[in-house]
Amino acid sequence: MINNRKLLITLLAVCSLYFCVHVINNSGTPVFRELQQSGRNLAALEANLDNGPLVVQDSLLSAEPTRIFKNSPISVPNARDASPMEKTIPEKVLDIIKCMDKPMAAKTQQRGDYWVLYNYITPEKKFRCHESITYTTHADYSFMDNLVPLLDRWRGPISIAMHAPGTDFQNTIDSIAYLRDCVDPLVKEYVTFHVYFSTKHVPKVVPKHNNVLTEPYNCSLTPPFANVSSDQMYKAQKKLLYPVNVGRNVAREAAQTHFILPSDIELYPSPNLINKFLNMIADNKGPLLSKNPKVYPLHIFEVGGNQQVPETKTILKEMLSNKSAIPFHKNLCPSCHNIPKAKEWQNTEETEGLHVFHVGKRNGKYIHWEPIFIGTHNDPLYDERLSWEGKSDKMTQGYALCVMDYDFLILDNAFLVHKPGIKLYKKDSRRATLAAKTNQLIKKIIFPELKVLYGIRKGCAV
Ligand SMILES: *[C@@H]1O[C@H](CO)[C@@H](O)[C@H](O)[C@H]1NC(C)=O
Ligand SMILES: *[C@@H]1O[C@H](CO)[C@@H](O)[C@H](O)[C@H]1NC(C)=O
Ligand SMILES: *[C@@H]1O[C@H](CO)[C@@H](O)[C@H](O)[C@H]1NC(C)=O
Ligand SMILES: *[C@@H]1O[C@H](CO)[C@@H](O)[C@H](O)[C@H]1NC(C)=O
């Protein structure tokens, strides 16, 4: 009897731990609390201890039984292993990443010198943290022509922060309304819009989040983002800088999913990336098992202005060989986006699914690499003192990743393609001046801070 009681206590301790760690219901609430409250399962345990194998049926968890055997040594096998039923991909992903869902709530908040309307316009589809990847990005309304081509290939959640100072605000709202009501239902389904502006450039009228887009948009009107020239914009009239990293961070922090793809809106991912990526995560093999923190960079390409964006790596390879596609920024800043083993990647045939092609580091030849990658909320954010015009806006994050010894797990069959049109070098003296100032800011102020906060490691630089 005493022995049995000891056994029971041990069992309960193990069980509590087990449920506490592993069982999370759909709203992210540990089911453990429910088990404790009901006492039903505990009673069942006691009654069955002497009667051979016991099955605790937990319908909240899944239809799978957890078997607990009477003979010592007592072990509580993982329900996943003992199960005769194969788990779904999202269930496997959840087991591995153990993420928590968070609510998508509208809020108005200050962030440094900016006001931010988080979750200002929200989508119909909601995703739990393990169910997808969120493409997080930033823009002003003149870039909104990219949203539908991007969505068409991504087909998953997008979190976008829109810079909308002064009179740019109404054009931004009208652009969103036009895309949602007149262009493609995918916009309403998948895209969360956040809006932000400097405290010095607050628009005259800002409707509450539940009072914006109350009227359907008149689809006969020309969308505000069509053929907009930059001098029509409030931002240009007031000579404001584009606070790219405020936008990046807002969009990232508000993303609902564990995995995120922080990117620039003109970069379109290869189709079916989300499913392929989650399958790879669920497989959890090879370099994915390393203890180092990891991100998953994507190769980036440009295609000619009159070209289609390639759907597969096979087509991309053909376009590379006839020069209708080239590696991104080949003409502007080859070292910024040059990826380890790039030539080998381009010479490797497309295969089924998605795998790690090569594990790289941001050092040696790649010391200034500004990769775009699938990562998580654990990755360092971007420095909000840096602007798009000043350049080097992702370098400080790159330094932090290097010091933290991140593995860069380069993916084999996935890639990004810039909106068609190959970029040529254009002289811009205002940008050159700002870039020089930014370099000083990074060298004199930011880099010393990063060394204090993240430390130093041989081979790492901003
Ligand atoms: C998860 O648990 C909470 C708290 O018990 C409950 O309110 C919620 O409805 C549950 N969610 C689902 C999807 O079962
Ligand atoms: C929509 O816009 C068109 C073009 O400006 C205009 O002719 C039409 O009257 C508008 N419709 C409504 C319902 O406002
Ligand atoms: C934008 O400009 C292009 C070329 O200049 C023209 O073909 C197109 O019709 C214009 N679009 C709108 C909506 O005005
Ligand atoms: C290059 O290859 C692509 C894909 O096969 C094809 O669509 C395109 O027309 C080709 N371009 C030239 C200039 O041959």
UniProtKB/TrEMBL annotation:
Family matches, as Pfam families: Glyco_transf_49
Keywords, ordered alphabetically: Signal
Superkingdom of origin: Eukaryota
Signal sequence extent: 1-23
Protein name, UniProt field: Uncharacterized protein
